[in-house]
Design brief:
about 190 residues, alpha/beta, two-stranded antiparallel sheet, 5 helices, 11 strands
Length: about 190
Amino acid sequence: MSPVVATMSISLDGIGAGVNQTEERPFGEVPENALHRWMFETPDENRAEMEAIVAAGAFIMGRNMFGPVRGEWDRDWRGWWGPNPPYHRPVFVLTHYPRASIEMDGGTTFHFVTDGIHAALDRARDAAGELPIHVAGGPSTTNAYLAAGLIDELALQISPSVVGGGLRLLEGVGPLELEQISGRSTSLVTHV
């Protein structure tokens, strides 16, 4: 069976996103460079980890990771990434509001799942074949999968910043027994 890998960039204090997300501020009140400088300023030294993040056969994400639209889908929001998102595979977006699938350039198709985390994982398993399934976030979605015991591997990119507040990874998850299988530091991030 395909492994389920959760990947997330977090601050030293465990923040993976801020509150009060808007279209202009995808990470809410957390500056984007607090969590993702390593991707944009030093991509060459983090190439292997960046490639691993998008090397899944299918992805799962929460609605907030997909965009700032709340409630019913009242406009044609197509994600933060422009016409060619980096996934190039099926992406299953958890939501409470039905929406037709959206096909994007490069092979990414966003499917909207209204019947919970288990249903999204079943659909991702069907789509991924033997490739891994990545839970791409945000923190609430990742925490739900961790609390349910559905994550096989947790891949963190820990930025050397303290944010002070926001949505925290591992909040409400309960005790976990984890084993570190790798770790590598570069100039702007530690990969664990």
